[in-house]
Amino acid sequence: MAGWVSLDAAMRAAAAMSAAARARALDPQLHAFVSLAGELPHAGSGKLAGMPYAAKDLFATRERAPTCGLDHGIDLGAAGDADVLRRLDGAGAVRIGFTTMTALAYEPSGHNVHQRPAKNPWNIAFIPGGSSSGSAVAVASGMAAIALGSDTGGSVRIPAQACGVTGWKSTYGAVPAGGAMALAPTLDTIGLFARSAADLAVAAPIIAGGLPQLAPVRRAVVMADVLREAEVPVRLACEAGIAAIEAAGVMLTRRDAMAAIKALDAAALVVLQGEAARVHRARIDDATLAAGAAKRTALGAPFLERIFGEADVVLLPVMPVRTPLRSACDPASGAFDARALYRLSEWTRFVNLLGFPALALPVGLDDRGMPVALQIIGRPNSDLALIALAETVQKQTGWAGRAPAGLADL
Q1: Per-residue pLDDT for 286 more than 60?
Q2: Which of 43, 45, 197, 382 is the most exposed place for a label (fewest CB within 10 A)?
Q3: CA-CA distance, 133 to 99, in Å (whole number)?
Q4: Residue 45: what pLDDT?
Q5: How far apart are CA 89 and CA 102, in angstroms?
Q6: Would you tell me how many other CB atoms lie within 10 Å of the CB of residue 340?
């Protein structure tokens, strides 16, 4: 997919108006937004001139306090617009509105009792993923070219799979978090959704200035035992994605990594739960939390040595399971399955503890017609190389160009 770079000036000028009109038409059914812009600002003249974007509702602006998934605005103590919003606006991008999220970004399915939860445009019976639900829905349904999300344990990658879009979780600290709600500050990262990696390639350097332009990805490790544990439809789709990466000239090695993931995940859960409680409740044993956070350094180097080895990236599914039905993730439903909810982030949380960049790459559909994504994890600050690899694969495949099946009914 050529993406935004293929549009001429006239098409760019019309893009924001078109996206805003589409949002007004579709949002009453999809609930992607909590706030839509009234009068759109004029596009600037920067690299993203006219690009319509949406922002997860945890970024502060001068005009409004974000709801952060609650039923009221929260004062984040910011002195103006969030850093990442200033960067996008300064590059000429046009903000369509602020998107639905789960309460305090602490839920992986998209369920929210405080606001209308976003609905998956592929099939509204299935979850849209969380916590950056609305941003993924907005991009998947054509209401924005790109959308900002945050990722503390998988909150960009999970909705990217559920909604069939490309999702980038940045290297820890690469994108400034000033003016954004914190959940677990040593795990929080800001990322982007787009239909194609080509659009990420344009926008990512704007919000993450200073990322190095590294050599193309040439070697990848497939987490073989992790892949074997995925549900069959997930595994088959991911194998197709892995084959496409190999066809792009990447040398593959298969290596078991489940034990390493579990060791990291135990520490990741301590930090995630502890820091979230400290930020929002101020109740946590500081010694326990410090011990969990200290494992980032202790476990990160061995992970690079034993799992990455000489490789540039490692490959595994985003989730071990197919995208669940909404009823399975709603505690008020008789069909609620707590284990299904837990498993959504089982293979994403450990990446946040490491602080590594990751990308969710659409690779096909499961047996129910719902999207499946392959997770590509890179070394620190290799974000642009991950995006370039995804762009190369998407030029050879048609997965990123598929429109959600449910849009025909809307």
Answers
A1: no
A2: 45
A3: 8
A4: 77
A5: 25
A6: 17
Of the candidates 82, 13, 292, the one whose C-alpha atom is nearest the C-alpha of residue 4 is: 13
Q: Comparing C-alpha atoms, which of 195, 69, 53, 54 is closest to residue 131?
A: 69
Alpha carbons 347 and 154: distance in angstroms, whole number: 8
Q: Which of 39-43, 59-63, 247-251, 323-327 has the lowest mean pLDDT?
A: 39-43
**Candidate list 133, 150, 155, 196, residue with the active-site label:** 155
Mean pLDDT of 355-377: 97
Residue ranges per structural domain of the chain: 3-409
The pTM assigned to this predicted structure is 0.94
Options 56, 132, 150, 169, the catalytic residue: 56
Class for the domain spanning 3-409 = alpha beta
* CA dist 307 → 114, 268, 312 (Å): 41, 18, 11
Residue 9 confidence (pLDDT) above 80: no
Which candidate in 109, 119, 131, 133 is catalytic? 131
Q: Torsion angle of alpha carbons 4, 246, 265, 234, nearest 10°? A: 80
Residue 47 designated active-site: no
Annotation marks residue 35 as catalytic: no
Residue 133 annotated as catalytic:
no
User: Is 139 in contact with 196 (CB distance < 8 Å)?
Assistant: no
pLDDT digits (tens, 9 = 90+) for 381-408: 999 999 999 999 999 998 888 889 888 7
The tokens describing 103, both together, are: 């309460």
